[in-house]
Amino acid sequence: MKILSIESSCDETSAAVLDFDCDGKITVLSNIIASQIEIHARFGGVVPEIASRAHAEAISKITYEAFDEAGCTVSDIDTVAVTAQPGLIGALLVGVNFAKSLAYANNKPLIAVNHMRGHIAANYITHPDLRPPFLALIASGGHTSIVRVTDYREMEVIGGTRDDALGEAFDKVARVLGMPYPGGAAMDKLAYEGKPTIKFPSAAIRDDTLDLSFSGIKTAVLNYINTAKQKGEEIDRADIAASFVEAAVSSVITKISEALDREIDTDKLVLAGGVAANSHLRAALTKLCADRNIKLYLPDLKYCGDNAAMIGAAAYFEYKAGVFAGTELNGCAVADI
Length: 337
Ligand code: KG4
Ligand code: ZN
Fold this sequence. Notes:
Blueprint: E1 2-7, E2 12-20, E3 26-35, H1 37-41, H2 48-70, E4 79-85, H3 89-105, E5 110-114, H4 115-126, E6 134-139, E7 144-151, E8 154-161, H5 166-176, H6 184-190, E9 211-212, H7 215-230, H8 237-262, E10 268-272, H9 279-292, E11 295-297, H10 308-321
Parallel strand pairs: 1-4, 4-5, 6-10, 8-9, 10-11
Antiparallel strand pairs: 1-2, 2-3, 6-7, 7-8
The structure holds 5'-O-[(R)-(carboxyoxy)(hydroxy)phosphoryl]adenosine and zinc ion.
């Protein structure tokens, strides 16, 4: 069976066609992404109204491209899937209304997908052997959550950030270091040129939760830079990047270790989200899992950031469960997993 999936929750408009064989094996026939990064870069972050307009401009074109690349038309599709939550409401509504119209006009069933579940499902594309249960860490520009995944459609957030998402913290620190939005990937690289000589506070909250708070590290970096400037001292950008990465990644490792201590039956850890592309986080989790004899699943780099293929992968389990949406489907900005 084939799924056309649409993603428009933030600043990438994406359409994909996925084929599933009778065992559920996934073939990504196309996964077209129109990024708005250049449009938002000059504002230093995503401007919601501009994002909605850019989605509206791109969505038809990239959907046709997705069909062309997949070598099929809408009549070959079994169902249309769309990200309905969480995300920027105006951005979500562009995708939701487009998918609703397409499904209605072509008499296809419609599936609403949770964006966070999509990030997790990106791993089913990369790792055909992956099966729940497992523990997942979703780290993106909007979310940072530790998730207990008991089945393909059964999952619960057991910890995560109480304020800034990890990607958001990366982007904010990158911005004060003069890098264009979104600076996460540039910070990843710059950290290799420096040494973690500055001690920034841990984001792992010292209590019995699995929660983190990244706003403290971000403020500590800003204070460090402002203090140095006031004293007329030179700052070493690479050392700051290396120290921030060290503090952020080790905080995540602290809480993931605690989560693994508690979830004693867990033998699999899955990384998901845009920050899953971070090489320091990947290396630290690889070491942690090797030490603890846990199998680690890392998504292919092309499925870390927002893309429609991951939405199609998550939609497959809704399709199998017979869970469809009607024409009353609405977008929802804030939603749990
Ligand atoms: O999942 P995503 O594409 O969008 C959201 O759902 O938020 O994640 C985007 C985030 C941005 O904050 C971006 O800076 C961050 O992922 N990111 C990275 C790296 N690549 C992307 N952060 C750290 N290191 C990277 N290599
Ligand atoms: Zn995302």
